[in-house]
Design goal:
Blueprint: H1 2-33, E1 37-38, E2 49-53, H2 66-80, E3 86-90, H3 100-110, E4 118-121, H4 127-136, E5 142-148, H5 149-161, E6 165-171, H6 180-199
Parallel strand pairs: 1-6, 2-3, 2-5, 3-4, 5-6
Length: about 210
């Protein structure tokens, strides 16, 4: 009985620590990103480069991914409003069967974006990789990140910690009910941000410098 009681107490302590970590990490990132994300094309400042963060075009089991579609629509709108001059597509190219950057580029070209205005980062396996490589590989000092607001906030914080000045243009989100799994995962991803900062995690790959012009 005593052992069981101590075990339960330990579980309560661990659960409390996890909950506190989730709340604090979320609050820090939200606070930092305040006034750094935009919903309006009129209000958002111009930047040379807009970076769209990759995601799968289709959900498991088939069907289109609304996160993907909304990010495509947002970056196209940003470009056509002349708020950016070039587009950097950063995503996962983990196998010959899965290639986010090329898929996104093809859809951007279909939407009227000139191919020569699009640059691809095939090693954007994580948001951390995307932001570090934007600075170290593509030589950016400023960038406009395009994703959903919750993702933009985390990307902006990571950019700041890697000496990259970033703002975000928010793609349309989806309902909490439909996106509950993604939203819950985001809370833990924000805790991982601080773990990566503490242990000084770098991108999976570096690479030769690529100038966007």
């Amino acid at each position: 009985m005593v052992v069981r009681k101590k075990f339960i107490q330990l579980l309560i302590v661990l659960f409390s620590l996890v909950l506190i970590s989730l709340v604090i990490c979320n609050a820090v990132i939200n606070s930092f990103a305040t006034d750094k994300t935009y919903n309006s094309l009129t209000d958002i400042p111009n930047n040379k480069v807009g970076m769209i963060l990759g995601t799968a075009k289709n959900i498991k089991g088939g069907g289109s991914n609304p996160y993907y579609e909304n990010r495509i629509n947002a970056i196209v709108a940003l470009f056509k409003a002349k708020k950016i001059e070039f587009i950097l597509v950063s995503g996962d190219n983990g196998s010959v069967y899965y290639n986010e950057p090329t898929t996104i580029k093809n859809d951007l070209v279909d939407a009227g974006i000139p191919s020569e205005k699009i640059f691809l980062d095939y090693a954007g396996f994580r948001t951390l990789d995307s932001m570090v490589r934007a600075k170290e590989v593509f030589g950016l000092n400023e960038v406009t990140v395009v994703s959903q607001k919750f993702h933009n906030e985390r990307a902006i914080y990571l950019a700041h910690k890697n000496d990259l000045n970033a703002i975000g243009y928010n793609a349309e989100d989806i309902s909490l009910e439909s996106g509950l799994k993604v939203q819950l995962r985001e809370y833990f991803a924000r805790v991982k941000v601080f773990i990566d900062l503490v242990i000084n995690t770098g991108p999976k790959f570096s690479g030769d410098k690529i100038k966007i012009e």
